[in-house]
Write a structure and sequence with these properties.
Layout: E1 4-10, H1 26-29, H2 33-40, E2 43-48, H3 58-65, H4 70-73, H5 77-84, E3 94-103, E4 109-111, H6 121-127, E5 131-132, E6 135-141, E7 146-152, H7 182-204, H8 206-213, E8 221-229, H9 236-240, E9 244-247, H10 251-259, E10 263-265, H11 278-288, E11 294-299, H12 301-307, H13 311-329, E12 335-340, E13 357-362, E14 385-388, H14 392-400
Parallel strand pairs: 1-11, 1-12, 2-14, 9-10, 9-11
Antiparallel strand pairs: 2-13, 3-4, 3-7, 3-8, 5-6, 6-7, 12-13
The structure holds zinc ion.
Length: about 400
């Protein structure tokens, strides 16, 4: 019998062969004895998170993996990020995600992350609570250079383009509506006013003055994107009857969990960066089984290292995950352990790709297959075959014996 579930998502874990690593992927090149021994006790496979031919974004990938078809439940990443930084969303709110970046006098972006500024709390405090044309703005810090922006007021829409052009060396975009509704036009107009005002405040902010004095880039523009309009979704517990909790460093993943009504646990040392304490996260996951049925653990850094093209860093971080994964070798098989990734982030490409990722299911009732290594090529031989993100929760429910009978 199975009692509980731990789902570990290693963000951007998948990769492609890298010449400098002898034609291996970072996961193949890493020494992963613990993950491999887990694979040997598991049913393995490969997952095209959103199906073949899709390049998965982290937000929608997580929704699908957790059983929430993004086509039904997703309205933009902003709402999820806002939930992740602890904002309580109400029906009709429009939320955006953002980065603090650096722009020059001509409003051309010279650095998208303001030199990867680590702490933006003083800046978000300066912008939080602004009110424009009857719309109030809530601005909260995310991890490192990130922030969430919530617009609350009547007649708002998420049908607007991003102010963020998504690349450096380009001018800031004026936000324009995507459709012809009065709501979209109003939202774009108010947001433009807010961004302009924010830029004035940020330019003069003492933190930025000090940064420039120290030869650092000023975080003088809030690059916003991913507008989403919130409407209530049924909770994970309501839909699958598992009480859920989340262990993550990154705001997005806490956001996905909050969005689904899971409890977000605070883990000291979980930073969402390569220095994160993976071992503490895994230890806490096991401990949390005493209070929750379903523990969702997210580990971020393999993705960021992939986006930086740092294949050695990615390989080394995977070894750090593996070292912590020894804790799972002792885990009771009453606990269904699932380890996977949300997508591939090839170091060579420095962005997400549509390549499938390895996945393993370990626990009572699982049909253990012949795979003895956890990586992109070994798992192609696994018993699960090629699945999609949407298959995971049905597979969990099947193993728990709670999947409904089709037919009679
Ligand atoms: Zn991701």
């Amino acid at each position: 019998m199975l009692e509980k579930v731990i789902l570990v998502i290693c963000d951007g874990l998948g990769d492609r062969p890298i010449k400098e690593l002898g034609g291996l992927t970072p996961l193949e090149a890493a020494k992963t004895p613990h993950l491999d021994s887990l694979a040997a006790e598991s049913e393995c496979g490969m997952m095209h998170t959103l199906g073949r031919g899709f390049v998965p974004g982290s937000d929608v990938s997580h929704l699908n993996i957790l059983g929430y078809d993004y086509e039904k439940y997703y309205s933009g990443r902003g709402t999820i990020e806002a939930a992740g930084v602890g904002l309580k969303l109400s029906d009709g709110d429009v939320a955006l995600r953002g980065n603090f970046g650096t722009v020059n006098e001509q409003l051309i972006i010279t650095d998208r992350r303001a030199g990867r500024i680590r702490d933006v709390r003083a800046l978000t405090e300066a912008l939080d609570g602004l009110e424009i044309d009857g719309v109030s703005f809530v601005v909260k810090p995310g991890t490192a250079h990130r922030a969430a922006v919530l617009m609350r007021g009547k007649g708002l829409s998420n049908a607007i383009i991003d102010a963020d052009p998504h690349k450096g060396d380009l001018p800031i975009r004026e936000v324009t509506p995507i459709d012809n509704t009065a709501e979209a036009g109003f939202t774009a107009k108010v947001l433009n006013k807010f961004l302009k005002k924010s830029h004035e405040i940020l330019k003069a902010h003492p933190l930025n003055v000090e940064r420039q004095r120290n030869g650092e880039l000023p975080a003088n523009y809030l690059l916003v994107r991913g507008a989403g309009k919130y409407s209530k979704v049924p909770s994970f517990k309501e839909r699958f009857n598992f009480s859920g909790c989340c262990i993550a460093g990154g705001g997005l993943y806490k956001g996905v969990a909050s969005f689904l009504g899971m409890t977000v646990l605070d883990v000291p040392g979980a930073t969402g960066l390569p220095d994160t304490d993976v071992e503490e996260k895994f230890r806490m996951a096991i401990k949390s089984l005493a209070s929750y049925d379903f523990v969702f653990v997210h580990v971020k850094a393999a993705d960021s290292l992939g986006e930086d093209g740092d294949f050695k860093g990615k390989r080394d971080f995977i070894e750090k995950i593996d070292k912590a994964a020894r804790l799972f070798n002792e885990l009771s098989k009453d606990v269904l352990l699932i380890i996977t990734a949300d997508h591939t982030t090839p170091c060579e490409q420095k962005s997400h790709s549509g390549d499938p990722v390895p996945i393993l299911f370990r626990g009572n009732g699982v049909r253990v297959d012949k795979v003895t290594a956890f990586n992109e090529r070994a798992c192609t031989e696994g018993g699960l075959g090629f699945i999609t993100g949407k298959d995971i929760i049905p597979q969990v429910l099947n193993l728990f014996g709670t999947l409904h009978l089709t037919g009679a």
